[in-house]
User: What shape does this take?
Amino acid sequence: MANVSVYNMEGKEVGTIELNDAVFGVEVNEHLVHMAVVQQLANNRQGTQKAKTRSEVSGGGRKPWRQKGTGHARQGSIRAPQWTGGGMVFAPVPRDYSFKMNKKEKRAALKSALSDKVANGKLIVLDELKFDEIKTKNFVNVMNNLKVEKGLVVLAESDENVVMSAKNATCAETTQVNNINVYDIMCAKTVVLTKDAVAKIEEVYA
Assistant: This one.
């Protein structure tokens, strides 16, 4: 099992913690990680784009000029794609871009993402993260103490003081264990987990 240092909110090391290899020490499956990221981005697409084909554009009911004898190229409609104001070739239509991944694939992708962060030293464990008041400055100070620039802070449970304090901070975002996903983990330079969050992740995914 990998041993990772545990820090307090002042950025000082206060101990170590053993991470379960079944979650934080698996072999990274790049294909599944890529698939999970593509799936999340695809599922987030609205798919409401629409353009008109030549059959849907108004006008152009008659042939603009006779077939032969004008010196022009033959034309059948002024709303053909090559005309200004004409229809679009292979126009996009509303569609659903989402696709499904198996539950085992999703779990394997998440474990791979977490294991990658551990292997690269980009995972930090906090003993606790609690604030007495909602204040962005408090959250930013903690992130500065941990030297986190673009991070993802994972909490075991929702804490309004922490979540609201982080809302306007540009250095990191917060999420809960039941909402973590591969895309957010891979986008973050550093993943910060509280000890309670580590325990909950190991309980759910081990």
Q: What stands out?
A: The helical segments are 21-24, 30-44, 103-119, 136-145, 160-166, 182-187, 195-205. The mean pLDDT is 93. The radius of gyration is 27 Å.
